[in-house]
Write a structure and sequence with these properties.
The chain is about 35% helix and about 20% strand. By secondary structure, the chain is an alpha/beta fold. The radius of gyration is 18 Å and the shape is globular.
Length: about 260
């Protein structure tokens, strides 16, 4: 089996961030870079352009979800790992991702771990994600790998994520929700695949109405009966982090009831 790492980047500086990642050369692994808002004169650095394991494709559509979908559509390997332009990948872990799918031929989607300055909670052991998600667990897009032939047209929902009209977050959680509700077999595997610099959206104080709206919508989808209480708990946790609970709650409720247009 082979692995494509589908990396999304944007703006003229984005391709330089990818260059600085120093993507490791690993047998059976390619890097598909989708470049959005690339400017009037897009130039791929020689260090990337001359590599046979790196392909850069341009994305004309707005929104991070569409950018990721563009990278996904240009991927041809058996396994696709979603990626960003601010990671350091561990070469041995990329091979272990391939091995994990080979060992479990019924697994369609796998989520992994990353490490960095800011930690997030993970399950201690391998577990299924098809029922109720483990306590305090949420997925980040850079943790998700998929068996490409299992997707059957499944892509990221362009109504979610940065650049979307209303729900400007939770594109990763929505993708996993869609996969689970399509019946794809999803697993968490306690394998650390990369180092991430900076805090993910889920660990930062919510200061954007669009991020709060996205969180509100995904909470309502994931917990159709207990979502009001969970939103109150989320607002309380924002207050404990130094955020504004009423701002968070108001925009989460707006997102929960919005059509997303």
């Amino acid at each position: 089996m082979k692995l494509d790492v589908a990396i999304a980047t944007w703006q003229p500086s984005g391709i330089n961030r990818v260059e600085h990642m120093q993507l490791p050369v690993v047998p059976g692994v390619r890097y598909i870079v989708s470049w959005q808002e690339y400017g009037s004169n897009p130039v791929v650095p020689d260090s990337l352009a001359t590599r046979p394991d790196v392909t850069v494709v341009l994305c004309e559509e707005p929104g991070v979800s569409r950018n990721r979908n563009n990278a996904l559509r240009h991927s041809t390997a058996d396994i696709v790992l979603m990626g960003d332009d601010d990671l350091t990948y561990y070469p041995h872990a990329l091979l272990q991702i391939i091995d994990a799918f080979e060992r479990d031929p019924e697994m369609d989607v796998a989520t992994f771990r990353y490490d960095g300055e800011h930690s997030k909670p993970y399950p201690r052991e391998k577990c299924s994600l098809n029922g109720r998600l483990p306590k305090n667990y949420w997925v980040s897009m850079i943790e998700i790998a998929v068996r490409r032939e299992s997707l059957h047209g499944l892509e990221l929902d362009p109504h979610f994520g940065p650049g979307a009209p209303v729900w400007q977050a939770a594109e990763d959680e929505k993708f996993l929700w869609d996969a689970r509700h399509r019946g794809l077999r999803c697993r968490f595997i306690p394998l650390t695949i990369a180092r991430h610099y900076g805090a993910s959206t889920g660990l930062r104080v919510i200061s954007s109405p669009g991020i709060a709206a996205g969180q509100g919508r995904i909470v309502r989808l994931e917990y159709p009966f207990s979502w009001p209480l969970r939103m109150l708990l989320k607002a309380f946790r924002e207050w404990r982090k130094g955020g504004h609970p009423w701002f968070c709650l108001r925009h989460m409720l707006r997102g929960a009831f919005s059509s997303g247009a």
